[in-house]
Amino acid sequence: MIDITQEANRWQLSGDLVIQNISQVLDASRALTLTDATALDFAKVTDVDTSAISLILELKRRASAEHVALSLVNVPANLVSLMQLYGVDDFVLPN
Fold first, then answer.
1. Residues 51, 23: Cα–Cα separation, whole Å
2. What is the pTM of this model?
């Protein structure tokens, strides 16, 4: 099970961020508000696969379209490795 909730300018993900759940998370995210400094928090994410990268890119596109910043915090090491493998870490992660 996966969940995405909003607390002020933080979007909290929890559960497994895998292909079976990505559509559910994306749908739920549409009800959330992006603020100028929204953080996408992975602290409670238990598992990820490559579909998590697609979700992140889609949320980054939305933030760009709305002219706001979306940062990632508490990113699991295995997700960072996947981003590096696919060559999107420089675009997605802060330096």
1. 10
2. 0.92
**Which residues partner with 4 through β-bridges?**
13
Q: Tell me the C-alpha distance between 21 and 3, whole Å.
A: 9
Q: How far apart are CA 84 and CA 43, in angstroms?
A: 20
Give the whole-angstrom CA distance, residue 40 versus residue 37: 10
- State the CATH class of domain 2-92: alpha beta
Is 92's pLDDT higher than 60? Answer: yes
Question: What six digits make up the tokens of 51?
Answer: 């579909």
Task: Indicate the domain borders of the chain.
Answer: 2-92
DSSP-assigned beta bridge partners for residue 44: 14
Sign of CA dihedral 24, 30, 31, 33: positive
Dihedrals phi, psi of 19, to nearest 5 degrees:
-55, -35
Q: What is the pLDDT of residues 7-44, one digit of tens each?
A: 999 999 999 999 999 999 999 999 999 988 899 999 99
pLDDT for 95: 53
